Amino acid sequence: MTSENASTETTREDIPLKSGAKHTKWYDCNDECFNGPKSINSAFGALTILITVALLVQIYYGDYQVVPHGSVATDSLECSKIGTQILKRGGNAMDATIASAFCLAVVAPHLTSLDAEGQLMVYNHRTRSAPTVIDFSSSNILPNKIPRLVVGLAYIHQQYGTIPWKELIEPSANLARKGYIVSKMLAQAVNRANAQDLFGRLEPGQLLRHDVLANTLLIIGNITEKELYSYIDSTNQPIKSQAVKSTFHKYNVYVPSLESIGPVLLVNLREIEEFNFTDVNVGTTKGIIQTTLKTFDEFNVTAKFHEGTSTNVAIIDLNENYVSLVMGMYNLFGSKKSTSYGYVLNVKNKEKPCSRIPIILADEQYICGKRMVFGANGIAQATQIVSNLIIGNKNATEGIEAPRFYLLENSTVAVEAFHSPKFHVQLLDYLNETHKKTILMPEPYYSSNIVEMLNDELSSHSDSRGGGIASRF
Ligand SMILES: *[C@@H]1O[C@H](CO)[C@@H](O)[C@H](O)[C@H]1NC(C)=O
Ligand SMILES: *[C@@H]1O[C@H](CO)[C@@H](O)[C@H](O)[C@H]1NC(C)=O
Ligand SMILES: *[C@@H]1O[C@H](CO)[C@@H](O)[C@H](O)[C@H]1NC(C)=O
Ligand SMILES: *[C@@H]1O[C@H](CO)[C@@H](O)[C@H](O)[C@H]1NC(C)=O
Ligand SMILES: *[C@@H]1O[C@H](CO)[C@@H](O)[C@H](O)[C@H]1NC(C)=O
Ligand SMILES: *[C@@H]1O[C@H](CO)[C@@H](O)[C@H](O)[C@H]1NC(C)=O
Where is the chain membrane-spanning (predicted)? Predict the structure, then answer.
């Protein structure tokens, strides 16, 4: 593997990275912010010279900011780093997504597996055309030759891949062989789902090796691309479609449409926009709760969609490809029994789509305005994050870490028992009043990982609920 260079990679999430010299500039964010046709003004040439001189000075002094920048946010620092390693080697966001997704199948067996299902959304901010959605959740994928997640990732590779398939899998095979640190979330999930048969009891912080899965990954990595793509036939075809777009407080909102909860989210956001909220406070949250309850009711959300497990990969690469992959299973640890190849099966007991959703937001008017890519599990989570980011104008960290409410199947509202920050006591009192007692949600909470850009600055954040850290360089 490529050795890590500490000076060009950072796992700090609290300082936005500014792009540097090798970032291929396709517009000038100080100058040409408006959408639509624009003329290059004469000052631009002079400005370019100034910038070039400034950058030469930076190169001379070896400032780390002169390397191209990209970021990967997942539920695991290891998996985020495996993604940025691929970006550093010249891979695009889609290559990095494949590598990180294999890694999550190793380190987060409670959430995902080689048999997991998922949806990918890919957007390019230079062309700004409607994002493409690739869905490998549907039952028309018959995982008879290769497992479902592998079908999905192989298809993504066929469509967009630039790095050899094998090289995208090897890091995860090595990680499974060498062992990974059990996260608090994984250890908790074992107890919660009674999945001790799989790995025994797990303690957070212990090293878990998985040789069988490592071998399986090597076998999958050994499949030639020609053979791999031949498995994607009419019986085994992910569904490709175009994302739908709506707007919310002067932001474009892109979500999948087919078989997805996306259109319901857009309706919910439209209703919330009508309140003209200008900040996220107790009153706003009450409005969001009421509106979302109404939407759940109107669209029969709990009957039509299943809340399965969810983990997501969010990536922006230096060519402004934005990728969000959401994936998961019907239940924690799926079948709870390992196949002879070392992964669990995704066992569904109802054929209804899951509620996980990839989301992209981009300032409607300013090209260099904020644009964000993330994933969520369900419209309550998605609506709250979109509201925090746009109405509350919160940065990536604050928008994701803000407290969340949950809508239970019986239409009651629950708040997180074990996450801080918590909701304002006035809101808790209000919930207490409306249903006698504030219901406290036990863990696990499904995470939402985000990468965002404002002008040329890149920020990212992995949700503390998922236990990951984003990696950037
Ligand atoms: C996000 O906002 C909080 C509060 O305003 C601030 O403390 C934090 O430094 C900000 N983070 C970033 C990445 O700007
Ligand atoms: C993968 O292919 C290499 C070279 O063809 C071979 O040496 C190795 O044994 C194969 N590994 C597996 C797990 O099939
Ligand atoms: C929100 O603003 C619009 C346009 O200014 C106005 O028509 C509408 O009545 C406002 N809605 C509320 C709830 O104040
Ligand atoms: C909601 O879905 C359930 C199950 O599909 C159905 O029985 C019920 O009638 C639906 N309710 C409404 C209001 O559509
Ligand atoms: C709704 O479900 C929650 C969790 O299962 C339970 O604690 C609560 O009492 C239920 N509320 C009603 C009104 O049935
Ligand atoms: C909700 O009400 C119960 C019973 O009246 C009380 O014990 C509890 O402290 C209240 N919780 C909040 C968060 O206000």
Answer: 43-61
